[in-house]
Design goal:
By secondary structure, the chain is of the alpha+beta class. It is built from five helices and six strands; from the N terminus they run αββαβαβαββα.
Length: 160
Amino acid sequence: MADEVGLDLVEIAPEANPPVCKIMDFGKYKYEVAQKAREARQNQTHIVVKEVRLTPKIETHDYVTKRNQVEKFLKGGDKVKVTMKFRGREQTRPEMGYKLLQRLAEDVAEFAFVEFAPKQEGRNMTMVLGPTKKKTEAVAEAKAARKAKADAAAETTDGA
């Protein structure tokens, strides 16, 4: 019957009694399954962990620069691993690094939450911050902002 119609005979449940078969275009079926899998992969979000390194004796301007970098990563929907490096005698004062990491967490509280609290591991103290917005939301907002900016630029060129 399948040959007469020009389709394939596909065995659906070989263990059933009697075995269940279906007449269908198997190539088309495989193509549709591949398309669904491809669509599902496109909708997945890849969580990236960015890293920012600090030292306990960081100057104010450098701290602000690093904080802005952390904010940029968090607004983009990425996680941020903040590493505090202790060198030489700085290792005897881990509380200085802990205070600095706590200050950073408070400064970016509107964009992030502390996923892993500061923890000492040898010469380094690490803390992981997670974004409050999901990556998909952040990407959609960035896209909308770029479109609005492009529209505004187009209006200014049209009016001139």
